[in-house]
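chain below, 209 aa
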Amino acid sequence: MGDADRRLGRRALLVGGAAAAVGTAALARAELTHLWWRLPGVEKPRVAGAVDFRGARWVPASPANYRRADRPDDYAVDRVVVHVTQGGYASAVKAFQDPAHGAAAHYIVRRDGRITQLIRELDVAFHAGNREYNERSVGIEHEGFVQDASSFTDAMYASSARLTAAICGRYGIPVDREHIIGHVQVPGTDHTDPGPHWDWERYLQKIKN
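prediction:
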């Protein structure tokens, strides 16, 4: 290799190294924006027992089943994911408060329409089985069974629709099937909820009204 080639090679190495450093710095900055709340003295103020949806009852999930965050500042929220508990209300709460369970949703809607919030919307709930979807969505569980059409009562549809309408309004989420989805639609999931008896047309119409 001649002197000119060596100079070119050194220059390419320096430019490449600088580009890599810039890329690494950008990644580091992006990661820091997601982890800012871990720094001493910068935790976002939180009111114990406060709910994001008026009328909801606060029953906290185990901290092991969600990740503290500052959504939508660190993660844009652009999805609502509809779940079904495959069990009763009490068993769902018990599971979400169990640190070994590894999952929890932001809300549970009961058959009678009562709403419980377990995780603040600003935090990342482990509900979808997909990290990206967890970070960008709010998860709503519905008491019942996917194979039992009677699980989905008028009161449940009405309350859940009001909840979802409030979430969509808060984050500017379009009311359509691309942005309001079932757990079954999350990439990589093995879940089937909310199942064939969930009336999507009825649900979206109620959200819009």
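The beta strands are 57-58, 66-67, 79-82, 107-109, 115-117, 124-125, 137-142, 180-182. The first helix runs from residue 3 to 35.
thats it, cya
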